[in-house]
């Protein structure tokens, strides 16, 4: 790799810039209200309880949690956060509130930071406000089945990326809870610096989602553009049946139509061309095949035993100049052909239109004029499946004041993210440069084996996780798919990906063998040709790489 001198110098100056980013000390913030506010100080473990709940062998919350300083793009010195540590695992942790949180006729503000230190391939980073009734307790661990009131925050898998906002509302007619999803949720920020997510629910039924303090979505809970909170007022009468004499054929064959006299159903589709003429030199008497005049009776032929010897036949060479044998005109499409006669279709005078059952009032219909009034909340927590580990959460606020949440954002998130972004910017081009490359070969080799080790480990984890999901899916398909669609998507893409890769690899192997063993192409030429090609591709890649870096470095410098 060729790197010009000025670029190396520029790069070195960037590294020292990264080291120069001033990281202020973290100072704990205290609130005047008694709202829930968590900064993960040294007493965090007395409030937060990790769950190791399991439904069966296959569904275990085996994900580990820890409170630590960030390892990627650090912000304030000494600022710790809660980290989901295990890749491809279910994680659950919750904190009970000292007193149940009640937002009847009052504003609810939920705010927290998410830092995707390794990005987010497939996984959730949302928070749940758990119901006081039936929620977590000393004897009941947090799980997928724990009732909640609000679910809010990022969830991404493959192409699907959203900031969930889900309300769980009870239907008083059936007693069942139903999940009410925000119809078009905003997208989550997939960056390795902190992102601040805020949810506001006001007693006038307005809601607002802010990302990094900016409004990403706002409206009314009662507006059908955002939520369908209530069931339909009317439903099809399940007892109404289609009458036996209902006519639903819109068109029928005209009963008065008669087949025209001159309609010949038997006229053939093809006829001999009446205008064709036999070519003058066509010889009807000549044979198309004649005995081979050059054939000779073999010596071993014994007429007594083998019978009379007959010369084998060959195509008559005379027929190559002109046609031989009986002549017939070529066939053409019959202009008189009409095929089978069918009467024209006319509108059915008895047609009654498509049948639909009559509507009746929905017995499960109810009104929900104040969905902002949630049931009392007893705890909050994270209950996630994630493929990517090292997701960090911090500065969790649950209270009634928008101003308080903004105050927290101004004093914790903003100063932190400023440092994180400076460090991220300074570090961005670092990985690509290696001014001096001592023992490049060895380094690359260990990198490859390292990567291989890691991928084997990963494949095993994905396999175990996928097996567990499959077992759940067989057990209760609807519930599993509804509650954990991200995993279905993820494992489906893994399967498709594996099949594609396997196919690609076997095709490559086959083509390599084909090249090696192809008899007509001398090997050495092929090989050196291939090597040359690889070399030139490498050169090109390096050239364009350093160009990109150059412009990036110049921009930053
Ligand atoms: C730690 O955080 C909790 C909850 O915010 C708070 O009540 C407590 O005073 C803090 N402890 C220290 C030593 O700062
Ligand atoms: C909430 O407000 C409604 C309407 O103003 C009122 O009828 C109700 O009593 C209030 N509920 C509480 C718990 O204050
Ligand atoms: C937060 O910062 C913004 C911008 O500086 C300011 O307008 C706002 O008043 C601050 N809010 C609070 C509650 O400190």
TrEMBL record:
Principal location class: endoplasmic reticulum
Leader peptide range in chain numbering: 1-18
SS bond list: 122-157
Domain of life: Eukaryota
Location(s) in or outside the cell: Endoplasmic reticulum membrane
Membrane-spanning segments: 488-518
Keyword annotations: Chaperone, Disulfide bond, Endoplasmic reticulum, Membrane, Signal, Transmembrane, Transmembrane helix
Record-level Gene Ontology MF annotations: calcium ion binding; unfolded protein binding
Membrane disposition: Single-pass type I membrane protein
BP term (GO), one: protein folding
Keyword Ribosomal protein recorded: no
Stored InterPro entries: Calret/calnex, Calret/calnex_CS, Calreticulin/calnexin_P_dom_sf, ConA-like_dom_sf
Region of interest (Disordered), ranges: 231-252, 521-557
Family: Belongs to the calreticulin family.
Protein name: Calnexin homologue
């Amino acid at each position: 790799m060729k790197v010009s001198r000025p670029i190396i110098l520029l790069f070195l100056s960037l590294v020292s810039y990264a080291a120069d980013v001033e990281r202020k000390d973290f100072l704990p913030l205290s609130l005047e209200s008694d709202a829930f506010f968590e900064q993960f100080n040294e007493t965090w473990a007395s409030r937060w309880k990790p769950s190791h709940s399991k439904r069966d062998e296959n569904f275990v919350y085996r994900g580990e949690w820890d409170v630590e300083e960030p390892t990627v793009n650090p912000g304030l010195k000494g600022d710790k956060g809660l980290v989901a540590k295990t890749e491809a695992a279910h994680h659950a942790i919750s904190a009970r509130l000292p007193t149940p949180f009640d937002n009847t006729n009052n504003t609810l503000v939920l705010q927290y930071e998410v830092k995707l230190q390794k990005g987010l391939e497939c996984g959730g980073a949302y928070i749940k406000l758990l119901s006081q009734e039936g929620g977590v307790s000393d004897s009941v661990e947090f799980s997928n089945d724990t009732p909640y009131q609000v679910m809010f925050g990022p969830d991404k898998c493959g192409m699907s990326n959203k900031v969930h906002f889900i309300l769980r509302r009870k239907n008083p007619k059936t007693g069942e809870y139903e999940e009410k999803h925000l119809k078009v949720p905003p997208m989550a920020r997939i960056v390795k610096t902190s992102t601040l997510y805020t949810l506001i629910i006001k007693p006038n039924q307005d809601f607002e989602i802010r990302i990094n303090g900016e409004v990403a979505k706002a409206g009314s809970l009662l507006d059908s553009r955002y939520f369908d909170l209530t069931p339909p007022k009317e439903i099809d009468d399940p007892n109404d049946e289609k009458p036996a004499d209902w006519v639903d054929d819109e068109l029928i064959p005209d009963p008065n139509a008669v087949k025209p006299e001159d309609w010949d159903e038997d006229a053939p589709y093809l006829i001999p061309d009446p205008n064709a003429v036999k070519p003058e030199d066509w010889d009807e008497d000549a044979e198309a095949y004649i005995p081979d005049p050059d054939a000779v009776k073999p010596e071993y032929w014994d007429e007594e035993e083998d019978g009379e010897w007959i010369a084998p036949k060959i195509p008559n060479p005379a027929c190559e100049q002109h046609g031989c044998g009986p002549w017939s005109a070529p066939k053409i499409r019959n202009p008189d052909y009409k095929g089978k006669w069918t009467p024209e279709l006319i509108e059915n005078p008895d047609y009654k239109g498509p049948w639909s059952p009559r509507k009746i009032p929905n017995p499960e219909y109810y009104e929900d004029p104040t969905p902002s009034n949630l049931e009392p909340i007893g705890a909050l927590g994270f209950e996630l499946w994630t493929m990517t580990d090292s997701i960090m959460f911090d500065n969790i606020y649950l209270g009634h004041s928008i101003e308080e949440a903004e105050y927290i954002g101004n004093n914790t998130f903003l100063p932190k993210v400023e440092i994180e972004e400076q460090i991220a910017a300074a570090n961005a081009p670092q990985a690509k440069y290696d001014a001096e490359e001592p023992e490049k070969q060895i380094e690359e080799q260990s990198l490859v084996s390292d990567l291989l080790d890691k991928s084997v480990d990963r494949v095993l984890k994905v396999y175990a996780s996928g097996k567990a999901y499959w077992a759940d899916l067989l057990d209760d398909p609807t519930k599993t798919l509804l509650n954990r669609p991200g995993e279905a998507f993820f494992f489906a893409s893994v399967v498709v990906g594996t099949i594609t890769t396997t196919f690609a690899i076997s095709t490559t192997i086959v083509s390599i063998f084909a090249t090696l063993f192809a008899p007509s192409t001398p090997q050495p030429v092929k090989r050196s040709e291939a090597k040359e090609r690889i070399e030139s591709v490498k050169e090109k890649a390096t050239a364009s790489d350093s160009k990109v870096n150059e412009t990036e470095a110049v921009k930053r410098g």
